[in-house]
Amino acid sequence: MTPPLESRTLARCLRSMEFSMSEDFQPRQLSPVETLRHSMAHLMASAVAELYPGTKFGIGPHIQNGFYYDMEIPGAVTPEDLPHIEEAMRAIAKKNHSFTHKTLTHEEALRWAEESDQPLKAELLADIEGPISFYTHGAFTDMCAGPHVRYTKKLKHFKLTQIAGAYWRGDEQRPMLTRIYGVAFETKEELDAHLLMLEEAKKRDHRRLGKDLELFRLTQEYGPGLVLWLPNGAFMRKQIEDEWRKVHLERGYELLFTPHIAPSTLWDRSGHTGHYRDSMFAPMDIDGEEYLLKPMNCPFHIGVYNNRKRSYRELPMRLCELGNVYRYERSGVLHGLMRVRGFTQDDAHIFCTPETFKQELDACLDIAQLMYKTFGFPEFKVELSCRDPENTSKYLGSDEIWTLSEDTLAEVLDERGIEYTRIEGEAAFYGPKIDIKVVDTIGRSWQLTTIQLDFNLPERFDLSYTGADNQPHRPIMIHRALLGSIERFFGILIEHYAGDFPLWMSPVQARVLPLSEKFKDYGAEVVARLTAEGIRARLDDSDEKLGYKIRRAEVDKIPYAAVVGGREAESGTVGVRKRKDGDMGTMSIEDFIAHLKAEIEAR
RNA sequence: GCCGGCGUAGCUCAGUAGGUAGAGCACGUCCUUGGUAAGGACGGGGUCACCGGUUCAAAUCCGGUCGUCGGCUCCA
Predict the structure, then answer these.
(1) Closest residue to B66 by CA to C1' distance?
(2) Which residues 501-530 of chain A have a CB under 7 Å from nucleic chain B?
(3) Is the pLDDT confidence value at A418 over 50?
(4) pLDDT, tens only, A254-264
(5) Given A345, A435, A511, A557, the catalytic residue
């Protein structure tokens, strides 16, 4: 079998060159599985080169669980083509080629790129110095720092998963290449487990569950990215918000409500029309004045602060609001509840003095951790975003205030014994911040909390308080959101619990299932008893058999079902069935209520 | 916004040599009165996303728009 033209050309190119085999070549360090995945990318590239002559190759790195390769493939490649590519990959792997390494001088490498018509590789070469490393398996050669597995036979347990567009070198201005993703593991068991996990993740997709459990609705008719909370979801949102308000009020926060629109002039002053315009919706004309929908709550909270002259005795002032904001998000980025155009920030702005600033930060971390505990996220990861020390000019505020702030943020984390990653250059231009991500049941992390210092707005709005020295001082402003957005947080909760929500959050906690029509009255009595005790109970009075009603209760993910038939009606009991666990046996109504209350209390 | 896939009943989907539509679930009525994950019969429900084109004839072919899905980019 003759190799396709493309491969022959490449092979000839290489043969015609003088190779400087360097004895001391050291490939970069990769773990065995990373090496395997990277070799997979090469294997895929060789298959694509065979099937689609003329393909130009970009980069093909290993990633978590697998690999991808960015390529410019002539003609359209669709998801249906993936199995063919996979087949070709297996065929090549079976031949058990060895991966061989060569080193070319930079000049030779450039010549290779030109002669084999690989302009993307040529471009990469421009950024690399010195001799260039190449790897070959079979008829395919790729410029690559390695390392690789020895033989293609090792490349067994993989699956191509998706195909997508990706900008060359991640730049929106550059052409879009075709990226093919695959997953790969060292053993079949690991691959199967991973594929199973992907299935699981699909099952707990909040968009799926949102439909099935009637939690929320997103539809073109009401605008993309705009959420209709259905009764079940709305009730759960109320539970979340009640808890949030309770905790805040207990900790000295004051609750606000502010408008959804404000004159453009306000957004000019806050700087949003300057820095954030692209994310704001088009203005509306009200009596000849231009108004804008709010993308953030900050200016309003500042307006509350500025209601009158403030004294240091009033600080810290902790203002919080579940504030609805609207942001224009580009159409391609909308995603269920995770990325929407109208959402509710669990926002707060804390105005404090330099003396109390540190303990306020500490209190923010404390309330954040309390929230994670309440909503069932025991694990979280913290990032401290600092300014780029190489480029301090693009940041607002003096060196002293930045150093002090960053040090204080770090101290607070250290004193709480919280581990964190410090990231230079990730701070906003107006101040450093702490970001916190929680880890869900299946190990994914989601950013929730952000605690940011703001050196900008207090200046812009000329905020002040009168100190003990009777002089005006500029307050320190902390901007923080614990859950981020209620919409997004709800989406995360749905996926975290896979729809099996804790009892205290569930819109319906118990569904009473009469065995037949004859026991409807007793069932209604049980519902009344539960309701009187504050339990959210409903009667399933449908004309169906018990098995059907139980199935419905399970499918609807109702935490408890209470079966009532002749036996129960006579003895004043219920047959209790727990979601997923099944029959718990018969108990008195009192015991059932006590059981439910205990579980609700325990959270 | 960009690349690619998709858009048929409330939901999940079938409907490829173009001839104005089907299933299951859900919903309604009736029968059935039943012990821990689907009892039965009948019935209502769709401008086949939208706009335009080709054709005697378009869910089906072509173009555009919108939405959605997977990525990319973005994410004060």
Answers:
(1) A220
(2) 515-518
(3) yes
(4) 999 999 999 99
(5) A345
Structural contact between residues A334 and A225, judged by C-beta atoms closer than 8 angstroms: yes
Is A345 among the catalytic positions?
Answer: yes
Angle at alpha carbon of residue A580, lines to A574 and A585, rounded to 5°: 25
Name the amino acid, one letter, at A133: S
Phi, psi angle pair for A131, to nearest 5°: -65, 150
Q: Does the predicted interface ipTM exceed a cut of 0.85?
A: yes
Which backbone phi and psi does A402 adopt, to 5 degrees? Answer: -65, -50
Which residue matches tokens 């993308």? A295
Does the CB of A166 sit below 7 A from strand B?
A: yes
Q: What is the pLDDT of residues A543-594, one digit of tens each?
A: 999 999 999 999 999 999 999 999 999 999 999 999 999 999 999 999 999 9
Alpha helices in A70-187 (DSSP H): 82-94, 106-115, 119-125
| DSSP summary character for residue A260 | S
Which of A376, A375, A435 has the alpha carbon at shortest distance from A241?
A375
End-to-end CA distance of chain A: 67
Q: CA A408, CA A417: separation in Å to the nearest integer?
A: 14
A81 touches strand B (CB under 7 A): no
The answer to whether A327 is a known catalytic residue is yes
Q: Which helix (H) or strand (E) holds A185?
A: strand A176-185
Predicted TM-score (pTM) of the model is 0.90
Q: Does the annotation count A479 as an active-site position?
A: yes
CA distance A361 to A408: 9
- Whether A335 is a known active-site residue: answer no
Distance A69 CA to B4 C1' (A): 16
Nearest of A487, A547, A488 to residue A516 by alpha carbon: A547
Cβ A214 vs Cβ A231: under 8 Å: yes
Reduced 3-state DSSP string for A62-81: EECCEEEEEEECCCCCCHHH
A298 has catalytic annotation: yes
Record the tokens describing residue A409, joined without a space: 């943020």
Closest by CA to A261, choosing from A219, A294, A236, is A294
Cα separations in angstroms, A39 against A139, A200, A242, A571: 15, 28, 53, 69
Element (H, E) at A591: helix A589-602
Q: Is A132 helix (H, G, I), strand (E, B) or coil?
A: strand
Angle between helices A231-250 and A357-374 (to 10 degrees): 140
DSSP code for A569: H
Give the residue with minimal CA–C1' separation from B76: A276
- CB count in 10 Å sphere of residue A206: 24
Of A6, A43, A316, give the one whose Cα is nearest residue A180.
Answer: A43
Residue with tokens 């896979």, as numbered in its chain: A498
Residues 441-480 of A with CB under 7 A from strand B: 456
Three-state DSSP at A587 gives strand
Which burial class, exposed, middle or buried, applies to A468 when counting CB atoms under 10 A from its CB (0-12, 13-18, 19+)? exposed
How many secondary structure helices (H) and strands (E) does chain A include?
A: 19, 29
- State the residue for tokens 């009596």: A287
Q: Are A256 and A248 in contact (CB under 8 A)?
A: no
Per-residue pLDDT at A19 exceeds 60: no
Helix (H, G, I), strand (E, B) or coil at A384: strand
